[in-house]
Amino acid sequence: MKIIKNKKFLAFFTLLVLTLGIFIFGYGAQAQDSEWAGRIVGGIIGIIISALGIILVLVIKGLIFIASYQHFIDSQAVVLGWVIVRDVCNMFFVIVLMIIAFGTILHLENYSYKKWLPKLVLMAVLINFSKTICGLLIDVSQVVMLTFVNAFKDVGGANMINILGISDIVTLAQNTDDTGFWAIVGAYVLGLIYIIIAIIVITTMLAMLVMRLVMIWIYVVLSPLAYLLAAFPGGDKYASRWWSDFTKALVVGPVLAFFIWLSFAALQTGNSIISEAEMNELNNQAGDEITSISGQSTTDASSKSALAGTKASTPGALIKFIVAIGMLIGGLRIAQEIGGDVGSIAGEGMKAVNKGKGMAIGAGKFVGKWTGQQLGDIRDTVSQKIGIDLDVVAAEKRRREQVAYNRKLKKTAIRDATLKQAEEGETWFGRKAALLSTGDVAWQNIIDKKFRLLTAGSPTKAAELLEQINKGDKKKSTIEDTIKDIQGEKNRVITNEERRKRAKEFEDLNTHSDDLVKKREIITESGEYKDLIAKEKDNNLSEAEEKQLIAQRTKISKFDADIATDNAKIKELNVMTIKADEIEATRQRIKDLDKENEDITKIKKSIIEEDVNYKELTEAERNGSINPTDRRKLAARRKEIDGMDKKIKTNNEEKDRLRNAQILVADDEAKEQMHLKQNADIAAHETEVKSLNNNLKDLSKSLRRNQLSEIQSARASVHAEMEGEANKKVANFTNPDQLVGIFHEAVEQHDIGLMSAVYKKLARTGNYNELHRDLNIGTGYDGMIDMSKYLQENGGMTKQDSRALVAEIGEICKSINHFEAFGAMTMNKAGQWEESGKDKQEAAILAEKSKVQVQQFVRAANRLGNGSYQSGKPHTAENWELSRSSINLFASKDHSYAEDLTKTGNINFIQFIGSNKKNLDALRKNGAREVADAIESICAKANKSNVSNPLDSIKNTL
Predict the structure, then answer these.
(1) Same domain, 144 and 90
(2) Which of 21, 80, 298, 561 has the most other CB atoms within 10 Å of its CB?
């Protein structure tokens, strides 16, 4: 790359030296009354001008020919193409009639014959006259256009060259004896500029007229399709697009013809801009100034007024040429605005003009670089003092960058909307049209999955497949539960002798447990213990009494642990005893209880959610407007619901009793036979599970085929791109309040990329709760579900997109020990995100917490790692709730967690636990008594501290 740059520099340097040498030598020669160097340089430029002049003549002739073209309708290509498209569209009307027929039969209002049949009949007629209609509209446009074309078409290419003044460019002014080097070179350089500008502008107009001609051909050929789309449900917008583009193509021709005529008219008259007397005065003044600058004396007026030594370089001629070209450029700009696809050609022409302008500006910058730097320093100093950025160029650059960013973001959003329509569109036609408009995704479907393009993507089919998968999963789960029950029965099969031994052990454990309870009560009911507790509440404990109280609590904790162990063994040993031949009846009884609970739950749900009378009574009670009669009715319904809850509870207890029952057989041989039968039952059920797995696998494949995985991948890519752009936008923001404000702006604009970027940044910095607090949403399972719904209802996200984002936020929070936001979403076998359920989430969180070492967990996990705020309530300590997963975790290693909490516990967590008695009670009730005591003790000591900040006082206590 370096060698290439050096070669370019060498060539440029050589050309520069040669040019400067010619100019310097020419200037010296001029002093010796010699113009030969100027004529050599002018001759070289003149050859270029002559070649460009030939091109300009050809372009002007082509412009006149294309502008006069009339055969838009009777062209052979148009006639053949229109007939084919018309016949294909006529065939499609049969499909539309079938859709309307089925819609009418199925009572689908959007597809009923009353709505679509009149429109269909009208469009069927218009399709066959579409070319005639287009011809009439084209004739109207051409009548206007040819009015201006006829005014300048007879002028001819050569005459236009003369009108533009290009023929006079290289014609030296009179009194050429005094013409020097610079006048000659200036004449030819001016001529080169004239002709290049003329070629660019007129070639651009020619290209636009050619593009217009071709586009009108195409629009005429496709005109039947526009009427067909207008008859399709969901196709109106595509028909409107055709009409819009066709109209723009018609309008742009007369606009261009008008400005071409106006420009040439201005060139021919000339005096519309400046009078002859004014022009002569201007020329004479310019000639005098040139004379004074050059130091030469000329007496001829024409020679005097020629600024660059030619007739065309007089000020009046220059102004006339600039105004005429300006009119042409103005016409290009207007055509660019109103011409649609045709107008885009004007943009390319304007780029060429702007390129020349940029080169001139670049030269100016090179000359004034040092001065500009000095002025820039002064400007920056002033800007800093007054607090206003005076660098207008930099401000404009930032504006252009923002415009480019907005355009890119808009294109990305269009891409996302197209993919969303292709996957989730309401109509088949809408989905397929969107899919085809993607180009790349549609092509990938064609080459990879030949039949997917037309058959896949039905939401109804996807819902059916997903329902079948869920039913299969449910049935599989039931069979697996049966296998577990049978395996549990194997462990409970005992003989008469084993039953007697267990009965004896059961009795001994009960006796031992009763003794432990009595010993515990001796301590807890003693006056000494009660006095110590009272003193502790009043903060009057001495150091010795505090040690004594701790020792007694340690003994009580030991008794509680031993009692819990005995109770667990008692529950495991025996609940009841059933005979081996009653097993099938027991299993059936458990299934009947499950079915009964399911039926009761449905009835209860129908009363609470669907019974209008119950809702009205509940609402009246809430508003305080319920009368005594309705109150009795509401009490009766609630009593009925309570009875259902009690029945479900009784059934569950009965199920547990049956599942935990011992199974009695006569002897060891009968026990062996029982085991063989149970093994056979397990094998049969496992075969059924295997068959279900194969069926579920096939259903999952069908669902994936239907879901257009290419579209999902493309959407994921679009979202990643939108989020990447948004990350740049928020890169410099660290304040959570500012980020929350940006999030609200993104929600209002439905900017999915910005929403995702801000939400993830808040999560990574441990501030996702700031956003949830602002939205009055919790931080645990319920809060994450509410956030998913908020993103759907207010942010414009789809259900899957919002759930995927919440799942990712959960993963981020888990990585920083904010465990309670993790696991709210899970992915099913069909690759769809769904709510995991609170129980599954608690189990997943407990598994993750258990992986962390005790000391590390108590040091790193704060309140958001051990509990959550409730939705709909302020984020205060009173509304913070300790999670079940943390309670179970502490109970599993009560002593270890209590010991480490007193050394390196997280002060934020300790404060939230200790400030609410219900959290301590929950710990004690569920086997984490030492942890509760340790936290209570730390908080009690902190309260005695003189430090005003609660967190600092706890920190000093540890």
Answers:
(1) yes
(2) 298
